[in-house]
Amino acid sequence: ALISNPLLGTDLKIDAKAAVTGISNGIKAFNRGRGALSITTAAVTGSKKHGIWAFNTGLGALSITSTGMVMGVVASGSGYAGIKAEHYNTSSTENLTIDVAAVTGGDHGIWAINEGTGETIITTSGAVTGATGITIGASGSRANNAAALIYSNAPITGTAGFAINLQGDGHDVVTLGPDSVITGSIDFGNGNDGNGGTNANDIDTLNVLAGFNGVIN
Predict the structure, then answer these.
(1) How does strand 108-114 pair with strand 81-87?
(2) 189 near 166, Cβ under 8 Å?
(3) Is the dihedral angle over the CA atoms 88, 5, 44, 176 positive or is it negative?
(4) Spatial CB neighbours of 26, under 8 Å, sequence gap ≥ 6
(5) Quick one: which of 46, 61, 73, 100 is 20 to 30 A from 19 by CA?
(6) Checking DSSP bridges between strand 37-41 and strand 62-66, what pairing results, if any?
(7) What is the pTM of this model?
């Protein structure tokens, strides 16, 4: 399904009550207006590319909520993700928010690119799997150094090494709940994370909540 909104001053809202399967992307949504883009779905499958591809150049927020499995093409090296969310208006102060159950992709389970100043907030209640489980940013940077806040209460797996890759700068916070299992490394990017970070002014935080019984590899 391809949905595009070129109208200024309007929001683009997608609410899929039943499972969606696309012959290319499962859901591909472009918002080029000044409003917000929101996607709410059950299960979504992209047969050849992304499960969900959301592209927002509006001043409003970008939000994705799924209650079922979101799956993109699973071949590593394909460049595709279970969910790819792009928030490209550098003037936007609104957040990029992703709240999902299970997600599976090829190069990325979840790939979020936020060029605005609002936060990137990702909450996972089901397993997220990709060559990299969750990627924040592109080409090693984030334009406005907006913070990424990740809360996991389920497994996050990076089959190629990184469970979570937080590229560039940002006062990032990763919180692991009782049902979280991290398979792969967590890279806090340029921040002062004690693991080769290059920006001492960028303070990143890893929280492990009481009752956590997972494994951090």
Answers:
(1) parallel
(2) yes
(3) positive
(4) 1, 20, 44, 45, 46, 47, 50, 51, 52, 70, 71, 72
(5) 61
(6) parallel
(7) 0.92
The span from the CA of 209 to the CA of 23, in Å, is 41
Q: How high is the mean pLDDT of the chain?
A: 89
Closest CA to 47 of 67, 66, 75, 18: 75
Q: What is the pLDDT of residues 179-197, one digit of tens each?
A: 999 999 998 888 665 555 6
Could you tell me if 149 and 124 are in contact, meaning their C-beta atoms sit under 8 angstroms apart?
no
At residue 166, the 3 state secondary structure works out as strand
Beta partners for 56?
A: 31, 87
Tokens of 109: 């389970």
And the tokens for 123? 């909450």
| Number of Cα atoms under 13 Å in the Cβ half of residue 142 | 32
Distances in whole angstroms, Cα of residue 49 to Cα of each of 43, 46, 109, 134, 160: 15, 6, 12, 17, 19
Dist CA 104 CA 115 (whole Å):
24
Maximum Cα–Cα distance across the chain: 48
Region of 145 on the Ramachandran plot (φ > 0 left; ψ -120 to 50 alpha; else beta):
left
Cβ count near 149 (within 10 Å): 18
Backbone φ and ψ for 11, nearest 5 degrees, come out as -90, 150
b/e map 72-97, b = 16+ CB within 10 Å? bbbebebebbbbbbbbbbeebebbbb
Residue of 45, 49, 53, 58 lying closest to 5 (CA atoms): 58
